[in-house]
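Posting here for the record, re: copper (II) ion.
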Amino acid sequence: MIRFFLGSCAVALALGGAAALAHDYKAGALRIGHPWSRATPAGAKVGGGYLSIENTGATPDRLIAISAPVAGRAEMHEMSVSDGVMSMRPLERGVTIEPGAKLELKPGGFHIMFMDLARPLRPEERIKAVLTFEKAGPVEVEFKVEGIGARTSAPAEHAH
Ligand SMILES: [Cu+2]
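Prediction output follows.
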């Protein structure tokens, strides 16, 4: 019985810790949820960026640019699979978030790609970045770096 209670306690603490790690940003009508990235191996030049963007307003907005001091440049990518071959293409015009919509940038779908990394991304660090929206303007955020296989759904994701 005692063991049971101790076990429950540990689970509750673990869940509480995870919730405390989530971080969110507001920019006008936009809610930006939990930007995160993955640690990169030594020598890697690219890393992914993931987050959610919810539009609580009445008009569409568009994510038009991303920049980060650690990366020479950053792009938005869309990933698709056709005939079993995975490919990515840059979204030159950015991504629109319709009113009431929640856009999820995640492994295997839309994502941000940090290119020309000046150094590897280390687990537990936070990467500063600026997301620029057509209407909401520039928003400073931090991407929390998680371990190298975190929530991987696409092993070849960054092999262009
Ligand atoms: Cu990509």
